[in-house]
Structure formats: structure tokens, C-alpha cells
């Protein structure tokens, strides 16, 4: 499992212009089962994506499709972790 932390590197108006394309990217990977949760940071300096992928390399290939990445709107920090406990009902997240 991976936590992807995006940090915007451009003004928010440039980010906002790319939101529709970014949302389409997210929807594609939710449908594929890769993305499990996502949302904006507070304050709005970027976002977080919780993802499942076979490897960090595979996830990096997916993230390269993100319009935020392609337009150089955000920096991505990827952290892998192995969940060992979850809230009841979220057991499928366990590796």
C-alpha cells in the first residue's frame, strides 16, 4: 500500500484549471481498484492519494499519467507502508 502526497508547486489558479483532467485520471484508477481514497490537504497545498499497486515502480507509471504531473503542477512523495491493523470492515486493506 502507498501514500502519495502531492504538493502544489504553482499557484492554485493553474491547479484549478487542470482539476477536470485530474478528476478523470482519479476516476480511471478508482475504477481499476488502484486508488482507495484521495482528497485535498488542509490547508490546500496539495493532496493525498491512498493507493494499492504491485510495486512502487508500477505506481510511478500510473502517477506519470496524472495531468498534475504532466503539467508539472505538483511534486509527488510516495511512501510505501504495510498496514497491520484496520477498523472493522476495512480488512481488505491488509496486505
TrEMBL record:
Pfam families: YCII. Transmembrane segments: none annotated. Residues 1-81 form the YCII-related domain. SUPFAM superfamilies: Dimeric alpha+beta barrel (SSF54909). It comes from the Bacteria. InterPro entries: Dimeric_a/b-barrel (IPR011008), YCII (IPR005545). Gene3D superfamilies: Dimeric alpha+beta barrel. Belongs to the YciI family. PANTHER family: GSR2449 PROTEIN, YCII-RELATED DOMAIN-CONTAINING PROTEIN. This is YCII-related domain-containing protein. It comes from Phyllobacterium sophorae.
